[in-house]
Design goal:
The complex is a heterodimer of chains A (111) and B (115). By secondary structure, chain A is mainly beta. Chain A is built from no helices and eleven strands. The chains are: A mainly beta (111), B mainly beta (115).
């Protein structure tokens, strides 16, 4: 069974802290890994990663994939209260249209 | 990315009734999908909405319970039939804009509560 596991499940930090969110996967036919931010209802796209070791960066957010060890991390530096959300990791499967999602990490950033 | 709208944004329904959720995209897209997110759980794919033909359902989801239509490349509906409290969830449509990307963009979601 294809599995995506995120850790921690929840995290509380203070503004200005740096956080690292983890995503490990065990799937039959890996094609790519995606990160989303979910506030309220709709997930918004952050990154798509297909190659190991190549960091993707957008402002204070960055992510990297390790296809040998089957995991990805999402880093957020200098956190702000607006970063409070659930961060979802998903894996796209080869030969399928399906995205398999992890349960998410709930990040709370306190002022 | 495409602009996606969903209607209704939320609803409270009685057991045994049905609700149809609409998903509209502002541009033609190759793929449309329907997901469910039960309370405290992650997103689970219900089905891929195929234009002009029957949807492709994931294991555990059936057409009689979740009939889907996709009459053109910008619009799809999901019906939740004969509802029970276990159907209380957020229902999300998503789109993919080409065959060369795995990125899916999500609509704003419909929060359904069944009493």
């Amino acid at each position: 069974e294809d599995k995506v596991v995120q850790s921690p499940l929840s995290l509380v930090v203070h503004e200005g802290d740096t956080v690292t969110l983890n995503c490990s996967y065990e799937v039959t036919n890996f094609r790519s890994l995606l990160w989303y931010k979910q506030e309220k209802k709709a997930p918004t796209f952050l990154f798509m990663l297909t190659s190991s070791g190549i960091e993707k960066k957008s402002g204070r957010l960055s992510s990297i994939l390790d296809k040998k060890e089957l995991f990805s991390i999402l880093n957020i530096t200098a956190t702000q209260t607006g970063d409070s959300a659930i961060y979802l990791c998903a894996v796209a499967l080869g030969g399928s249209e399906k995205l398999v999602f992890g349960k998410g990490t709930k990040l709370t950033v306190n002022p | 990315s495409a602009v996606i709208s969903q209607k209704p944004s939320r609803d409270i329904c009685q057991r045994g009734t049905s609700l149809t959720i609409q998903c509209q995209v502002d541009s033609q897209v190759t793929m449309m999908f329907w997901y469910r997110q039960q309370p405290g759980q992650s997103l689970t794919l219900i089905a891929t909405a195929n234009q002009g033909s029957e949807a492709t359902y994931e294991s555990g989801f059936v057409i009689d319970k979740f009939p889907i239509s996709r009459p053109n490349l910008t619009f799809s509906t999901l019906t939740v039939s004969n509802m029970s409290p276990e159907d209380s969830s957020i229902y999300l449509c998503s789109v993919r804009q080409g065959a060369l990307t795995d990125t899916q963009y999500f609509g704003p979601g419909t929060r359904l509560t069944v009493l």
